[in-house]
Design a protein that fits this description.
Helix content is 35%, strand content 20%. By secondary structure, it is of the alpha/beta class. α9 runs parallel beside α15. 53% of the residues are buried. Bound molecules: ligand BES, manganese (II) ion and zinc ion.
């Protein structure tokens, strides 16, 4: 898909189809009025009949109007005149979905935008690309029947922007494309079933990524290497599985950067049965998404490489399965982490924190500027925040605020949870330095508090994406979150 900015008026724009917003009561958006004047008011006369009242997300494709360059007009309902970002995104997604069902190969989209203080020109263009690509995303399914035909749509132009704004708009497009490519990579990986997307498969995908981008290099630690690193907690989780574990290290090096790297860590449980603390069968299939953090790391590394961001970034992915077996860890087992701290595993289903704590310790060797881990870590986070916000916990409030602010700008929101010391105290064990669980209360935070014990002295944030990284139900699948948030976070630090 090609993306462009257009600066001309709607009647002059070159495209098969112009897409315009209609507001409650069939009212034309400001931009559409010029178009209507060009066709002699035919559009307004049509709308007056009331057939298209402009309800949010409704669409109608109209045939050619006289004296327009385009052969069609797509009407898109935008609801009230006070256009929020959320409603604008909904209208945009509806427009793209409608276009994808037609033979239109190029479209100029001119919906009413939210006020510019809510959506500047850069973010407008970036979000427009992200929404478009998300609306066009198809699950790479394994159905044996014929695949539906690809949409005819080849090119989308967004606007109109003034010519002075088009530079910011073009940057927004480029960043939106890189963000969308990262999200697609994440979604494709996370949507794969556990029997395909194994730790070995993830390692191969990481290697493939490094052959695609010159700035990336990949190293994969095998089980023996993981043992040599003394990652006792990671090894404890994998010991019940027949699939070999992998520890993926992926690096982006920029000649323009001298500063200590940013390190991303992603939870890569390719299937979480819970182990001996076996999960209920209900939605257990969704535990194939338990490698969403890992997929997010690979996705964002792809985005970083595509944008050639002037910073050094390391991605760390501990990946294995969590299975019950005769060799699996048992509740009460005590293991020693790479950091040397001992952990009593009271619940084998709290495995994410076990693989992450060893990866976080590994991050120390880079003397990182900042460490951010992403994990589908707790059901408790979904209880606390629902699916709308990712949870953010950090030992540095400024870092947490940066992530939350990036989420607001990117419409990929996150919310900070408190990580004060009381939560860490709940992890007391009679037999080891601490336990891996602390009861139900504040479960998302006690998981964060567990990780915090391994990140002393690092500038670190943890993102619990258990609710945001995928959706269940009829549209079951990966969402690609929090790639848009992270892209914004990174771009914001390196300058738009
Ligand atoms: N992968 C799960 C967390 C999860 C649950 C993600 C539901 C998405 C939806 C994690 O490994 C887990 O099982 N956590 C336990 C922790 C508990 C045993 C303290 C949980 O949340 O129940
Ligand atoms: Mn689990
Ligand atoms: Zn898990």
């Amino acid at each position: 898909m090609q993306f462009e900015i257009f600066t001309s008026g709607l009647p002059q724009v070159q495209a098969d189809c112009v897409v315009i917003g209609i507001h409650d009561g069939g009212e034309l958006s400001a931009g559409a009025k010029a178009l209507d004047r060009r066709c002699g008011g035919a559009l307004a006369r049509f709308l007056k009949r009331g057939d298209f009242p402009g309800r949010l997300g409704e669409t109608l494709l109209l045939p050619a109007f006289p004296r327009l360059k385009s052969s069609r007009i797509l009407l898109v309902g935008q609801g009230g005149h006070d256009v929020t970002r959320r409603n604008w995104r909904k209208a945009m997604a509806a427009a793209v979905a409608a276009l994808a069902k037609t033979k239109v190969s190029s479209a100029a989209v001119a919906l009413t935008r939210p006020a510019s203080r809510e959506l500047d020109d850069y973010t407008f263009a970036r979000s427009a690309v992200e929404v478009t690509r998300a609306a066009l995303y198809r699950v790479n399914d394994l159905k044996s029947g014929q695949k539906p035909a690809e949409p005819a749509l080849q090119k989308i132009k967004f606007g109109p922007l003034t010519s002075s704004a088009s530079r910011a708009g073009k940057r927004g497009l480029a960043h939106g494309i890189a963000s969308a490519n990262g999200a697609k990579l994440m979604r494709d990986l996370a949507n794969l079933p556990g029997n395909v997307c194994t730790p070995t498969y993830l390692a191969e995908q990481a290697k493939a990524l490094a052959t695609k981008h010159a700035s990336l290099s990949v190293k994969v630690l095998e089980e023996a290497d993981i043992r040599a690193e003394k990652m006792g907690c990671f090894l404890a989780v994998t010991q019940g599985s027949d699939q070999p574990p992998k520890f993926i290290v992926i690096e982006h090096k920029s000649p323009k950067a001298s500063r200590a790297p940013l390190v991303f860590v992603g939870k890569g449980i390719t299937f979480d049965t819970g182990g001996i603390s076996l999960k209920d069968p209900g939605a257990m299939d969704e535990m194939k998404f338990d490698m969403s953090g890992a997929a997010a790391v690979l996705g964002i590394m792809n985005t970083i490489a595509e944008l050639a961001l002037p910073m050094n970034v390391v991605g760390l992915v501990p990946t294995c399965e969590n299975m019950p077996s005769g060799r699996a860890i048992k509740p009460g087992d005590i293991v020693t982490s790479a950091a040397g701290l001992t952990v009593e595993i009271l619940n084998t289903d709290a495995e994410g924190r076990l693989i992450l704590c060893d990866a976080l310790h590994y991050a120390r060797r880079y003397k990182p500027h900042t460490v951010i881990d992403m994990a589908t870590l707790t059901g408790a986070c979904v209880i606390a925040l629902g699916v709308h916000h990712s949870g953010v916990m950090a030992n540095d409030d400024e870092l947490a605020s940066e992530l939350v602010a990036a989420g607001v700008r990117a419409d990929d929101r996150a919310w900070q949870l408190p990580l004060t010391e009381e939560y860490g105290e709940q992890l007391k064990s009679n037999f080891a330095d601490f336990a891996n669980v602390a009861g139900r209360d504040g479960g998302a935070i006690t998981a964060g508090a567990f990780l915090a014990k391994f990140t002393k002295g690092l500038r670190w944030a943890h993102m619990d994406i258990a609710g945001s990284a995928y959706v269940g139900g009829a549209a079951k699948g990966s969402t690609g979150r929090p790639i848009a948030l992270l892209t914004d976070f990174l771009v914001h630090r390196t300058g738009r």
